[in-house]
Amino acid sequence: MSKSDSVVKGGGSVAIARMLGMVLSFLLFLVLARHSPQDAGVFRTVVTYLVIAEFLGMLGMHRWLATEMASENKGRWALFLATNSVMLGVSIFLIITYLSISYLDVYSPGIDHGLKLAALSIIPSGIYQCVQSALIGVGKTYAVGKYNGIEYLIRCTVSILLIYLNFSVTDVIWVFVLTRWGIAFYSFYVLSQMLEADHWLPNKKDVAYVLRDAPKFLVIIFAFLTLRNAALVLIPALISDAENAIFGVAYQLFDMILLIPSVLAVTSNHVFVNKANQSNVALRRVSTQLVSITSLALFPCIAITAAFAQNFLMFLYGDHYLLAKHALMLLMIASGLVMVDQVLSQVMTARKDYKSDMISILVGGLSAAALTVVLVMHSGATGAALALVLAMLATVIIRLRLLRSVFPIKLLLLSTWRPSLASLITFIFFDMGLKLSMFSVLANGKYLWIFCVPIALILYVFLLYVMGGITLAKRTRIRQFLFHH
User: Fold this and answer.
1) pLDDT surpasses 90 at 62
2) Would you list the domain boundaries of the chain?
């Protein structure tokens, strides 16, 4: 097998694909939201169930498989086949579950029908998740980005065209299902050639090895999916599809912001595994570097989105979705916590400390479920966002406590205080400025506020420079992390 991709090559591919996917998915949801809040709510819920199927199909072992593939030189194909066999068994159970939910009348007729279609994509979703995890594990993240980009391009452009031609949201879901079948089997074939497949039936010992820690991973992924998707599943059941659309527009922007930490986390997976095999010191160093680099890029995006939340929502979605303003601002806080959580989880996974990972995410998942039910009934979409913030905070606190010997909180504060402070000052300046007379024209203008966004970014960079956050030494370390791992 050829040399693994660098963080920049693999990360660039995944980043471009994710950005393409985010933009196209954003446009698709935008068209749906403007067309019908009801359809947008149905679509958001069904897509959430599609995402849940991707992760539950593998029992949450996607990161485990990537880690195992990174450390294995031989037997990679056998391990991949064993994981797929487990996935197929779980997928059958999930299909039955989805179909059962669709007949319980918990949701509206539109969502119930969408769940039946979502059941058809469970098996290819599991296959595709296995392929992506394997490619990440062997350092071929460039291919992951390429396949993701192809799928996003086909399904979103066709779906947008169908909406403009007055097709229903059901037809859009059909496009998602059929596209997933196609990309899953194509990528499976390519991986089989890459790993030089020499057999097609899994070995019982390999299956037993995969299932050894499966209960832990199932708890982890179930808690993770509860933490991240509780609101999107519960809002339409507790309130309405239209309220879910309001939360959905804020969550869509939240997803776009998370592109930054997600890409860096995925593409540095093999780096973390290698450092964990060396020593805790090496793992601590690379973890600190990842937190520092991610916060430099993520925090200004959080500050700018929060400061101009009302303007973004008005410009993109219209007056009806201004109700999502406070939900969006809260989700920006949550995105910073998600970034920290991803790095800490990656440290635990690299050390194969799955017990700590399970405890942490279980606290977060249970907190999210309980808080979402209570706060959604009281405050709707805003309550759902607040529930996510509190649940993420609880998860991060537990992780820091369990990793105190490897990643003490002092290192986290030292790595993030400069971008945090620069972003906070930028947010306060523009958030208050838009409420005062000095920016009143920009605040009330339909498009003029856009000119404030690059000014806000320039202010952030200036503050960071004054604080010593972009010195020559720091830039050198960033280049080393991105290009030489």
Assistant:
1) no
2) 1-212, 238-485
